Amino acid sequence: MPKAVTIYHNLSCSKSCQTLALLEDNGVAPKIVDYQKTPPSAAELKSILKKLGLKAHDIVRKGEARYAELGLKDREVTDDELIRLMVENPVLIERPIVISGAKAAIGRPPETVLAIL
After folding, report:
1. N or C end of the chain: which has fewer CB within 10 A?
2. Given this model, what pLDDT does residue 2 score?
3. What is the CA radius of gyration of the chain?
4. Which residues carry out catalysis?
5. Quick one: residue 100, left, alpha or beta (phi over 0 = left, psi -120 to 50 = alpha)?
6. Which top CATH class is 5-116?
7. Are 98 and 105 within 8 A, CB to CB?
8. 1, 105, 83: which is closest to 39 by C-alpha?
């Protein structure tokens, strides 16, 4: 039985759309989560980070206006605080993130997700 695949997707992001198309072109029909409308909980985000093998600071979008608005350029925050802020402000979460079983990958570039299928 094939693994369930989930994509944390942003419809207005070209890389996210390219990654979704790549999955579908490879016969994968992922569960699509519009993470801006339905953000992961702190526990879910911690699980995603563990599967990615990354820290919260590694997946925060530092170029987003919200990052600067929150003063994150000017202060250090713990991973737990950053996770809380990403849950409250999902625009800060790097996209797309694809989960397949116990593995995850960020679709930048989109082809990176093929390694976890």
Report:
1. N
2. 57
3. 14
4. 13
5. beta
6. alpha beta
7. yes
8. 83
3-state secondary structure of 112: helix
- Give the model confidence (pLDDT) of 84-111 as tens digits: 999 999 999 999 999 999 999 999 999 9
- Give the number of other CB atoms < 10 A from CB of residue 22: 18
- In the block, tokens 């950053």 appear at 82
- Other CB atoms within 10 A of residue 117 CB: 17
Structure tokens at 62: 């530092």
CB atoms within 10 A of CB 29: 10
Residue 1 pLDDT > 90: no
CB contact at 8 A, 46 and 23: no
